[in-house]
Amino acid sequence: MADTTTTLVEPTRRDFLYIATGAVAAVGAATLVWPFVQSLTPDAATVAAGAPVEVDLTPIADGQIVKVFWRGKLIFIRNRTPAEIKAAEDVNIATLRDPQADSARVKPGHAKWLIVYGNCTHLGCVPLGHQGEYEGWFCPCHGSIFDTSGRVRGGPAPTNLPVPPYAFTTDTKIVIGQEVTA
Amino acid sequence: MSQHPSTYIPKSALGKWFESRLPIAGLVHSSFIAFPVPRNLNYFWTFGAILVFMLISQIVTGVFLAMFYAPNAALAFQSVEHIMRDVHYGWLLRYLHANGASMFFVAVYIHIFRGLYYGSYKAPREVLWILGVVIYGLMMATAFMGYVLPWGQMSYWGATVITNILAAIPVIGDTIQSLLWGGYSVGNPTLNRFFSIHYLLPFMIFGVVILHVWALHVPGQNNPTGVPIKSGKDAIPFTPYATIKDIFATVVFLIFFAYFVFYIPNFMGHADNYVPANPSVTPSHIVPEWYFLPFYAILRAIPDKLGGVIAMFASIAVLAFVPWLDTSRVRSTAYRPLYKQFFWILVADAILLGWLGAKPPEGWYVIVSQIATAYYFIHFLVILPLLGFIERPLPLPNSILESVLGAKKGGSGMPAGANAEPQIKG
Ligand code: HEM
Ligand code: FES
């Protein structure tokens, strides 16, 4: 039976059936892969544990940096001194690797509070606070330097420390994980 | 003896009955007993057997460790300490497994450089070589995930750094990262899936090893001259000659292995990994296990994140193309005076990269890493293809037998092979 098809040039009904069967099998296999891949994505409990967190800022002293976690990710909350704010604002942003004004990295009227993710944008180490040339952060892993606005100023890190979504609920309270408060 | 029986004849009636239903004894006989082996193999050819031994050793110790290990971020570190302190001989199981991984890589690096030196990747052994590169890749993935399991500081931060590397891949990087993490950062789901894959991969390695040996037994083994077996006099049967030599070499290797296990079990580990994982503090100096250091140096040598990732993967992938990058028709480096020098420069370059990988990426270390990385690629992409055209190789012996018996200067003065009596020499 096999040799009847080899001598024919014209596609036959049998060719059509082979292709149709193969296509159904391929679609079926792809459909079956979907739940397996989906099972690897963050599960419902993990997502639920990633709900917004509230942080009270009152215990944080002037110049202090505290570490909090949201969605298993480290976040720095820095109560900046006037000198640190000034240093961050007085930068010519055109000279930066990832140009961003300090005002774009804090909430209006709350320039004191810098809230950024605490993992280096190079390969994810935790930079050390109040260290490095600009006394912002210094990453011990491969030497990235960040200023008091969390912007990259040297080393291999490609971007600034990102600002997580957050909002002030009162002057001394923030909610990390949501942009606007109800 | 020079006629190697290719057909196995079972002696007993039961053997005949079974063989006609599943001819496995015949397969073993033709692969590991009667199989013709070049008579001039040196000890570099025993590392294949050593590697098989190490794979089995890792599987056996791993299966026992898994009986006591808890793949949960809250329990993992404790359970490893429990293995070390409470489980009878748990310390031995764990030290055999942790040092066994290092020994596995010692053996595989010798095995790979053996292949590069004697041209074992050249036709007709390209598929054999590529299967070897596949095994090496699987080994690296297995060892990386295994190192995450004790959930110490190096485990956690090693996993963080490596999974962040993958995020640099354009378009799909973030998806890959999130599927590996199973969360928003390295955490319990990550540990769980790494354990599952760490358990799985060695068995996949086992499967590829079977293909590797199969692909070896089609063309047969290469040998220090690179000249193929031409007559039965060039070969000896696998058993007893190669079997005994492989067992002897494995025992010597085991003594080396045992020295580490019993006297300096933490020599190749990092003290930081005895500190439980802490996502808010990075160890002052993150270094991977020694066997990854050359690739880590290449990763960091490139000032661009994506560029570094590409260079690192390319440095491994380039090995798969060596059969076509090498244009010389002579296999063995023993007959390639120019390549011989470049071979040793490559070995030195790889060791230099390994040393640099353990250094902080500052100052002149960075510059030297860049030069060493560039040289690594130049070796494979420029020197190797060009040498085949430039080099004038030394004359090859006519046969393996001639190289063994005729090579002796000041001998009887008889023409090579005239006094050949393989039965005596074997
Ligand atoms: C290709 C073979 C294998 C390699 C290269 C390998 C490598 C490793 C490495 C480097 C570690 C970390 C050791 C430490 O610092 O504590 C480890 C841990 C572990 N491996 Fe494997 N492994 C292999 C096979 C297996 C298999 C087959 C199993 C299970 C069936 C297994 C189960 C474990 C367990 C439970 C741990 C955690 C306990 C510990 O940290 O000692 N491994 N492995
Ligand atoms: S992880 Fe911070 S510099 Fe590399």
What does this entry show, briefly?
The complex is a heterodimer of chains A (182) and B (426). With 182 residues, chain A is α+β, with helices and mostly antiparallel strands. Chain A has four helices and ten strands, in the order αααβββαβββββββ.
Describe the structure.
With 182 residues, chain A is of the alpha+beta class. Chain A has 2 domains: 2-39; 48-176, Rieske Iron-sulfur Protein (3-layer Sandwich). In chain A, 26% of the residues lie in helices and 22% in strands. Chain A has helices spanning 2-7, 13-39, 44-49, 82-89; strands spanning 53-56, 65-70, 73-79, 113-117, 128-129, 137-138, 145-146, 152-154, 166-170, 173-176. Chain A has a 4-stranded antiparallel β-sheet with strand order 5-6-7-8, with no helix packed on it. The longest helix of chain A has 27 residues, at 13-39. The mean pLDDT of chain A is 90. Chain B contains 17 helices and 2 strands. Chain B has helices at residues 13-19, 24-32, 47-66, 76-85, 90-118, 126-148, 153-166, 173-181, 188-217, 238-263, 293-301, 305-317, 322-325, 337-357, 363-390, 400-406, 422-425, and strands at residues 36-38, 235-237. With 426 residues, chain B is mostly helical. The radius of gyration of chain B is 24 Å and the shape is globular. In chain B, helix 3 (47-66) runs antiparallel to helix 5, helix 6 (126-148) packs antiparallel against helix 9 (188-217) and helix 14 packs antiparallel against helix 15. In chain B, strands 1-2 form a two-stranded antiparallel ribbon. At the A-B interface, loops of A face helix 7 and helix 8 of B. The structure holds protoporphyrin IX containing FE and FE2/S2 (inorganic) cluster. Residues 55, 58-59, 62-63, 65-66, 69, 80, 94, 97-98, 101, 104, 139, 142-143, 146-147, 149-150, 198-199, 202, 205, 269 of chain B line the site of protoporphyrin IX containing FE.
